[in-house]
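Consider the tokenized backbone below.
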């Protein structure tokens, strides 16, 4: 009878361990956002995803048929927000100093360009780990 109880306890521990590892492996690894991309005084619908790269974070924008990639250095700020600075991945002669702001509480993402009128605003789903 003692062997039955030890087998049952080991089985419960093993199942709990498997359940915990499965839950952690299913976690989302980045942010997925939808919003509006303003450039040259013209708004367009855009989708973008934020993933952690080495050593910077990558943001992949999909604007209609155009795909743009930006790289950022991100850090935590006060009040449950994240700020970062970076630029477009492929520099085509234009100056591209970009700043981002992301609020962890209401999941709103904002990006602005210092040298042009490019702006991005939208709502995000997922989790970002710093």
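A designed sequence for it:
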């Amino acid at each position: 009878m003692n062997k039955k109880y030890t087998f049952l306890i080991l089985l419960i521990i093993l199942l709990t361990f498997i359940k915990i590892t499965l839950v952690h492996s299913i976690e989302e690894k980045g942010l997925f956002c939808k919003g509006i991309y303003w450039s040259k005084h013209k708004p367009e619908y855009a989708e973008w995803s934020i993933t952690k790269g080495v050593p910077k974070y990558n943001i992949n924008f999909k604007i209609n048929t155009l795909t743009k990639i930006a790289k950022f250095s991100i850090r935590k700020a006060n009040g449950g927000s994240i700020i970062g600075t970076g630029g477009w991945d492929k520099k085509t002669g234009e100056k591209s100093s970009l700043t981002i702001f992301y609020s962890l509480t209401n999941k709103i993402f904002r990006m602005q360009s210092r040298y042009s009128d490019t702006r991005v605003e939208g709502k995000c789903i997922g989790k970002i780990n710093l």
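Strands lie at 30-39, 42-52, 57-63, 66-77, 81-88, 98-103, 108-113, 119-126.
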